[in-house]
Amino acid sequence: WHAQAGCALGMSRHREDITTIFREAERCQKIVRNLTTFARKHKPEKTFLGLNGLIEDCLRLQEHQLGVHNITATRELAANLPKTMADFHQLQQVFMNLLGNSQDAMAQQSGKKRLSVKTRKIGGFLRVEIADNGPGIPAEYLENIFEPFFTTKEPGKGTGLGLSISFGIIAGHGGRIWAENIPGGGARFSVELPITEA
After folding, report:
1. What pLDDT, on a 0 to 100 scale, did the predictor assign at position 38?
2. pTM over 0.85
3. DSSP state, residue 141
4. How many CA atoms lie within 13 A of 100 on its CB side?
5. For 104-107, which contacts have Cβ atoms below 8 Å and span 24 or more sequence positions?
6. Which among 1, 25, 93, 117 has most CB atoms closer than 10 A?
7. d(CA 110, CA 97)
8. pLDDT of residue 107
9. Alpha-carbon gap, residue 146 to 133, rounded angstroms
10. Residue 194 forms beta bridges with which residues?
11. CB neighbours of residue 111 within 10 Å
């Protein structure tokens, strides 16, 4: 009996070790992928696209994760939003990153978790706002969050490159991205892109 119990304990320990190795290997892969993206700085390969459709695609891809974290997502996508010239995959990377950050911010939160995505036209620009009711961003970090390798996440949870890469992508599109805290709690990331003809 003791030998069997010892064997089971050993197997359990090995399983934990293998799981840890796998998780850390995935993390390393993510860091290398982000570093490669950061180093390459590809020029956008633009096509004429609609932002609302791109946002809907991103939300569909995040649907399972949102459900796992019990997050209610709402959308206010402006009707008749003009299309613009943009790189679909680069913008998808930006919005998936912002949606993922919002989920991470609310992960440990109790009570109702809410995520909202809005689109609208302001002058010659299209604006996308992604907001959550998480803890917000510490005021002293607001001016640093787009710097390479800066992260507010605990060690092992983030590479500190997601927002920096997003900043570079949006700048490459002639737009801007910024973050702010919402009065009453939560954070909002805004992206503005110029409306350009096909």
Report:
1. 47
2. no
3. G
4. 14
5. 104/153, 104/157, 104/158, 105/132, 105/134, 105/135, 105/187, 106/69, 106/71, 106/132, 106/133, 106/134, 107/69
6. 117
7. 23
8. 82
9. 21
10. 125
11. 8
Q: What percent of the chain has pLDDT over 70?
A: 77
pLDDT of the residue at 42? 63
Token digits for 183? 């009065």
SS3 143: coil
pLDDT at 129: 98
Residue type, 5: A
What local confidence, expressed as pLDDT, does residue 39 receive?
47
Q: Which residues of the chain have pLDDT under 70?
A: 1-11, 20, 22-42, 149-160
Whether 179 contacts 137, CB under 8 Å: yes
**What distance in Å separates the CA atoms of residue 11 and residue 106, rounded to the nearest whole number?**
35
* C-alpha to C-alpha distance for 172 and 129, rounded to whole angstroms: 19
| Residue 172, H or E segment | helix 162-172
User: Pseudo-torsion of CA 157, 58, 168, 43, nearest 10°?
Assistant: 130
Q: CB 178: neighbour CB atoms within 10 A?
A: 14
